[in-house]
Amino acid sequence: MLKSKIQTQEEIETYMKELKEWLESVKNATTEEMTDFFTKRINEYDNVHLTHWGKEYAHIADFFDNGLNSLLDIGCGTGLELESMYKRFPKVKVTGIDLSESMLNKLREKYRYKDISIIKADYFEYPFEENKFDAAMSFETLHHFKYQKKQKIYNKLYQTIKNGGYYIECDYIACCNEEETLCLEGYEYRRKKNNIPDDVFIHIDIPLTLEHQIELMKNAGFQTVDVLYQNGGTVIFKAKKQ
Length: 242
Ligand SMILES: C[S@@+](CC[C@H](N)C(=O)[O-])C[C@H]1O[C@@H](n2cnc3c(N)ncnc32)[C@H](O)[C@@H]1O
Description:
By secondary structure, the chain is an alpha/beta fold. The chain has helices at 9-26, 34-40, 45-59, 82-88, 101-110, 147-160, 177-193, 210-220; strands at residues 70-74, 93-98, 116-120, 133-139, 161-172, 224-231, 234-240. It contains 8 helices and 7 strands. A hairpin with a 2-residue loop joins β6 and β7 (234-240). The longest helix is centred in the first third of the chain and has 18 residues, at 9-26.
């Protein structure tokens, strides 16, 4: 099981200082469209992510309840999180949805013998069936979207999970309001400077605070939202539908 590590005030101050310097240094960097970003990095993607979140990928399945039969994975990418899910639940029926053809091709290769439905689509728009899945999950995909946009996906997740089911998310969370605000300002500045239309997804991190994340999940209808694990900016939530 994963053991949490909460940042001390001193660590947060050092982190914020470095973040401000970094945000300044990327202010005028090229802004990449979401699928282009992942296509360009497809060869190194798995190694880079496993280096950063290796233990979270290896243990994400520990947070699920026994008897999982059907699972929706939004922004599944190459399926790094599915490795531990299949280890614990070899027969689970997975539906994975992602925008990126190159990421999904890699996932197809890895899990060719599994009962997996792969959907290439935008999860904000895809019409998920009501009361379909025992559980849903997302891993490192939702921190590129603003509060209102995220509300839409939590509402949809709530609808598509069966009564008594749950949603597990592992994602990048802002340590404080200042981080949330600074990241969002940088994002808006770069969108405006590069004349990026509102409907184009870009790969820039805009994490929300823990408080805002929980608020979104509760607004969607989830009765309880628990923080199961925290390691700096990486947080795992479990939101239950009764
Ligand atoms: C950082 S990767 C995470 C992939 C995988 N969950 C993992 O942890 O390795 C983010 C993924 O989310 C996908 N994504 C981003 N926005 C999306 C959207 N609106 N609809 C579907 N997929 C999306 C990207 O294409 C990418 O594969």
